[in-house]
Design a protein that fits this description.
Elements: E1 13-18, E2 21-26, E3 29-34, H1 45-54, E4 61-66, E5 69-72, E6 77-80, H2 96-102, E7 112-114, H3 120-123, E8 127-128, E9 131-132, E10 138-142, H4 143-151, H5 160-169, E11 177-180, E12 185-187, E13 190-194, E14 203-209, E15 212-216, H6 241-258, E16 261-263, E17 272-278, E18 281-286
Parallel strand pairs: 6-7, 7-10, 10-11, 15-16
Antiparallel strand pairs: 1-2, 2-5, 3-4, 5-6, 8-9, 12-13, 13-14, 14-15, 16-17, 17-18
Bound molecules: zinc ion (ZN).
Length: 293
């Protein structure tokens, strides 16, 4: 008897221990897309092919993945970003809610939902059937992020649809949100840090437990080779490109210098790893067994 071919297999939830806390990364979904745009806007086809080939990646397409992070601090359950929600459910993503159950949690267990920024793959899952998908959660967002998207004055034209989404999903919830400044406390051991540029008011979050840290860096880099390895290349997804590049440089340098563990929304699933210096750029190194010993 010949066994049936079953296709690729990947468990959508991944958990590790961080000090006295637990960190779970959940695959909201994946979408295939082209490389340029959005990445390597300053490179030609030949240069892109060389960069991709050197990393053993296809030269014409990439898999974008969306990976919210959930942290149990020991006293609160904090969800960072909400995935794509129903908007992309017929297109490979938006499965955070059902996969939360695979990870052992119910939506009502979540105490805090903290948003890095308001792009669709981060806010799309905040509502389910018109109701807040995490009914008991305190919602949090960077003050500047909320204010800029609410005003709209500095939001680039290619984000018009995204702004509509903000006005429909996030703006009406203003009274439910706590607005965060750089350095503000989110939960026990969890601090918000300014990471402006990719979205004008993007925030990232540092979690500390018993001397261990992880940085939930949102979209500091949107691809583990094309942006971590080419931090100065403008990215179509970055709303303020110059500020995004400066922030990417600053955060990559900090992560490499401090050996910081990172959970990145668009790093390769399970999206947990480190960056190391590679000449004038950086290299993504996925976490291995060091988190289990
Ligand atoms: Zn994103």
């Amino acid at each position: 008897m010949t066994a049936e071919l079953l296709g690729p297999l990947r468990h959508p939830a991944h958990r590790f221990t961080l000090g006295d806390a637990e960190v779970t990364t959940i695959l909201d979904g994946t979408i295939p897309m082209g490389i340029r745009p959005p990445f390597l806007l300053d490179k030609d086809d030949e240069q892109i092919a060389a960069i991709a080939t050197a990393a053993n990646l296809p030269t014409d397409r990439l898999e974008n993945n969306f990976i919210p992070t959930l942290v149990n601090t020991g006293s609160e359950l904090v969800l960072f970003d909400t995935g794509c929600g129903h908007f992309r459910r017929n297109n490979g993503a938006g499965f955070l809610l059902e996969r939360l159950a695979d990870a052992g949690y119910a939506p009502g267990d979540i105490d805090v939902v903290a948003l890095t920024h308001v792009h669709p793959d981060h806010i799309g899952g905040i509502l389910e059937d018109g109701e807040i998908a995490f009914p008991n959660a305190q919602l949090m967002i960077g003050r500047r992020e909320f204010d800029e998207w609410n005003s709209g004055a500095n939001i680039p034209p290619q984000r018009a649809e995204n702004r509509e989404m903000f006005l429909k999903l996030i703006a009406p919830l203003a009274e439910r949100f706590v607005f965060l400044e750089d350095g503000d406390r989110v939960a026990s051991g969890v601090t918000a840090e300014a990471a402006f540029g990719h979205s004008i008011g993007q925030m990232m979050f540092r979690i500390e437990s018993s001397g261990k840290q992880v940085l939930v860096w949102g979209d500091i880099a949107n691809h583990f080779v094309f942006s971590v390895g080419n931090p100065d290349s403008p990215v179509g997804f970055d709303d303020d490109k110059d500020t995004a590049i400066a922030t990417r440089r600053r955060v990559l340098d900090m992560c490499a210098t401090d050996g910081l563990l990172i959970a990145g929304h668009h790093m390769p699933y399970p999206s947990v790893g480190y960056v190391e210096r590679n000449g004038d750029a950086y290299r993504w190194t996925p976490a291995a067994y060091q988190l289990r010993l």
